[in-house]
Amino acid sequence: MTNHYYADWRDVPEKLWRWPNFSPEEIACRGDGTIRINEPALDKLQALRDHLGVPLIVHSAYRSPAYNRQVGGARYSMHLQGAAFDIAMANHDPESFEAAARETGFTGFGFYPRQNFMHIDIGRARQWGDPFRTRASRFAPEPPRLRETLTETRTMKGGGAAGVATIGAAGVEVVQQAVTDTQSALQPLIPYLDTMRWLFIAVALIGIGTTIYARWDDWRKGRR
109-158 pLDDT, tens per residue? Predict the structure, then answer.
């Protein structure tokens, strides 16, 4: 048996599902969660994923009759058989994707450049829709990133401040102890040295806080 139907994608037995890069939820109907597992179609979809080596974002796979009517699908759409997939072109070059899909065994193609997805199915050989524009490169260029030398980053500045302040605090403590032990004549300076030690400790804590915030901010902005 090459087709299985379940009223809810959660009912699909784990041992039945053998397509590692996809989940039952991805293949199920977006309208009511029902799913028709078309094994030959899913085998080709997994083969295409393996061939390309990058994720396939599935906009639509199986559609129940009611949902197919709701979205204006063709009366005999291959989606009704679980044999069609609408794949986003956001991370694919359409020309290369189409060639790979044909090589993998897909025979039906629908082109939707405005919505930026391509329909592929295993029905009769045919195609429709407007062609995609040829792209200069496979993927959209990444936005420029601000480059900072290691010594100029906020992380290094914060870390440097923390290090200097820590050494300063330790040095003041040593001086304070030396004055206490050997320079009784300078006893009046001890309270001031104690104040300086706590000042250095405060600077160290600020530097550490700056370092932690800078690392979090760099991670948030994708500079990690």
Answer: 999 999 999 999 999 999 999 999 886 655 554 444 444 444 444 545 55
Establish if 216 belongs to a structural domain: yes
Helix (H) or strand (E) holding 38: strand 35-38
Residue 128, beta-bridge partner list? 110
Q: Domain of 59: which CATH number?
A: 3.30.1380.10
Q: Please answer whether residues 159 and 207 qualify as being in contact, where contact means their C-beta atoms are separated by less than 8 angstroms.
A: yes
Strand partners for 85: 120
Give the closest residue to 176 by CA, choosing from 155, 200, 157, 197: 197
pTM more than 0.70: no
Domain-terminating residue out of 60, 94, 129: 129
Establish if 170 belongs to a structural domain: yes
84: pLDDT strictly greater than 60: yes
When divided into structural domains, the chain yields a total of: 2
On whether both 115 and 18 belong to a single domain, the answer is: yes
- Helix axes of 154-182 and 190-220: crossing angle, nearest 10 degrees: 160
* 195 pLDDT tier (thresholds 50, 70, 90): confident
How many alpha carbons lie under 13 Å from residue 126 in its C-beta half-sphere?
A: 7
